[in-house]
Write a structure and sequence with these properties.
The protein is mainly beta and 124 residues long. Helix content is 0%, strand content 44%. It is globular, with a radius of gyration of 14 Å.
């Protein structure tokens, strides 16, 4: 897929086009290979799009995209289908275990296309 015109100024190595927003089911996960990593992509009811690593560190399996999307205390999350641990869609932080997180990735929407960037820096 060719990057949309609005993605100019960013190298194609930084922002990888994945799909159109309209192709993402609301509150369902999809998987994509981005920068050599398996990524789980989610679209919420409010049309926010998030990208997390697809590997569940508790189940030791790539299942995050099959998780249940919801909110807890205003925090959008996905619950792993294996052990039901909830991960913040914005940061990848586990809401049930402060010592665990999964990678979160920058996301942009340009001309209706979901672009996934590099892994977000962990919050200090």
């Amino acid at each position: 897929m060719t990057p949309p015109a609005g993605a100019r100024g960013s190298s194609t190595e930084e922002w990888q086009p994945v799909c159109r927003v309209a192709e993402l089911a609301v509150e369902r996960g999809a998987t994509a290979l981005v920068h050599g990593q398996a990524i789980a992509i989610f679209r919420t009811q409010g049309d926010q799009v998030y990208a997390l690593g697809n590997h569940d560190p508790f189940a030791k399996a790539s299942v995050i995209a099959r998780g249940i999307v919801g909110t807890r205390g205003g925090v959008p999350f996905v619950a792993s289908p294996s052990h039901k641990h909830a991960f913040d869609l914005r940061s990848g932080r586990c809401l049930d275990d402060d010592h665990v997180s999964i990678p979160a990735y920058d996301v942009r929407i340009v001309e209706g296309v979901v672009l996934v960037g590099h892994r977000k820096e962990a919050a200090a």
